[in-house]
Amino acid sequence: MTDFTNDSDDDWSDTKSIDSCEAYIQFESIRDPSTQLEKAVSFSWPGVYQHGDGDVASNEQQKDGVLRKIIISTLLEEDDLAPLFGGCQWAGTRLWGAAVRAIQFLAGNLEIDGSNNDSVANLKPRSSGDNKDNNTTLLELGCGLGVPGMIFHMLGSNVVLTDQEDILTQLEKNVRENFPSTSISNESSSSDATAAQHYIRAMPLSWSRTGVHSLLEQLQLSTAGFDIVLNCDCVFEPLYGKSWHLLNETIDELLRVNQKCVVVSSMERRGPADGIDLFIKEMKEMEYVGSVEKVYYDEKRNIEIYVTRGLE
What we know:
Number of strands: 10
Distance between the termini: 33 Å
Strand order of the largest sheet: 6-5-4-7-8-10-9
């Protein structure tokens, strides 16, 4: 297991951080030499190696143990630039600790209390990155940079990254440039998209039951839904207001479509007014929610992970 005790309060500003979340994925901030302003970030995942063509290598194709590196632009396109206090857009260009803990959890790399083992079973991808016939599907809500979803795709799953339309241009570009052989453009025909065996794509989603219906219809998943739904640091009232009501509505509808879907919510506590307690309380009362269980707590970083399941 990884040592999570080597965290400090000010290490997020370093280009190479000793923060345990960032160190685990070898996170690095890439900056313009002339201005020292960040223009991109890079990260890798332990055990996922690079093939000669830049794609994920199979176990037999590992090239000198070189980890597959993902480089993500954090620069918004000119048309997508937010006002000075456009916090939602700014938050979508940051990598948050809760996102790293979430993918560690999904990949089985966090130590979970024994009483919660049943809650985390069957969350791992059904195959490793060298098997392109994996059928596990993951939907990431409010994905921002999309780091957890991208890593889960490298581990073998089919992934749909979703966020607000005004940051989707950046997200689509990053997906296309990092996964040229498996990314699906929103301009692709529905038949081409359906035929893809191993894919990742970025799509806009307005949190609502109607938004879920529209998304599933476009993906031809109206009856199947998703196996896993992930949301990371999507609840923080000072920045996002009470949008968690809409997030709960979205989660509830996804559980209505697929009762066996597993919803993973990873959040960092930032004070009593962050809205997380209200979000969890309301989630437990949603019509199609069967159970909500806290399965992980990082005391140093105040990160909590909840697993929500549908009605059995």
